[in-house]
């Protein structure tokens, strides 16, 4: 019985968990709007900073413009990001993973990723989808 409990416990701790801190994890955030184009947002959290990933054309790159973030209580992550040449306060609800750019913008919905490789694959899927639908 003791060996079974040890085996069960070791299996449980081997799974990646998104509970707890955001360090070493990423978010892929997408939104839909009928009145504005909403480009997906990609954020990697590491060493108390965010490394955003940017898409330009059909290429993407890790921005390396590190942004400090703040965990507000247990419910929110806050940070400032430069979007469309203006700095915006961004709020991410840790329960719903809803990203709010500001009060005038529609919400974006995020999904967690556990590795940079997984994030790169998600970004490449978005780029490949755009290549299929874009006419030029």
List the helices and strands and how they pair.
Blueprint (H helix, E strand, L loop, with lengths): L1 H13 L10 E6 L10 E6 L2 E8 L2 E4 L4 E6 L3 E8 L2 E8 L4 E3 L7 E6 L2 H18 L3
Termini, distance in Å?
A: 64 Å
Using only C-alpha atoms, the radius of gyration works out to: 17 Å
Tertiary shape: globular
Mean pLDDT figure: 81
The SSE order reads HEEEEEEEEEH
In brief, what are we looking at here?
This protein is α+β, with helices and mostly antiparallel strands.
Any key phrases for this structure?
single chain; 136 residues; alpha+beta; 2 helices; globular; disordered N terminus
What would you say this structure looks like, in words?
- With 136 residues, the protein is of the alpha+beta class.
- The protein has helices spanning 2-14, 116-133, and strands spanning 25-30, 41-46, 49-56, 59-62, 67-72, 76-83, 86-93, 98-100, 108-113.
- The longest helix has 18 residues, at 116-133.
- It is globular, with a radius of gyration of 17 Å.
- Mean pLDDT is 81; it is low at 1-19.
């Amino acid at each position: 019985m003791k060996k079974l409990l040890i085996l069960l416990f070791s299996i449980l701790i081997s799974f990646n968990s998104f509970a707890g801190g955001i360090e070493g994890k990423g978010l892929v955030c997408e939104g839909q709007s009928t009145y504005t184009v909403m480009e997906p947002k990609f954020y990697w959290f590491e060493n108390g900073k965010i490394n955003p990933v940017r898409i330009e054309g059909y290429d993407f790159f890790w921005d390396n413009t590190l942004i400090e973030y703040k965990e507000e209580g247990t419910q929110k992550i806050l940070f400032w990001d430069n979007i469309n040449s203006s700095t915006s306060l961004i709020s991410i609800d840790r329960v719903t993973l809803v990203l709010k750019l500001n009060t005038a913008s529609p919400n974006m919905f995020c999904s967690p990723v556990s590795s940079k490789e997984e994030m790169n694959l998600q970004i490449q899927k978005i780029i490949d989808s755009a290549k299929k639908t874009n006419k030029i």
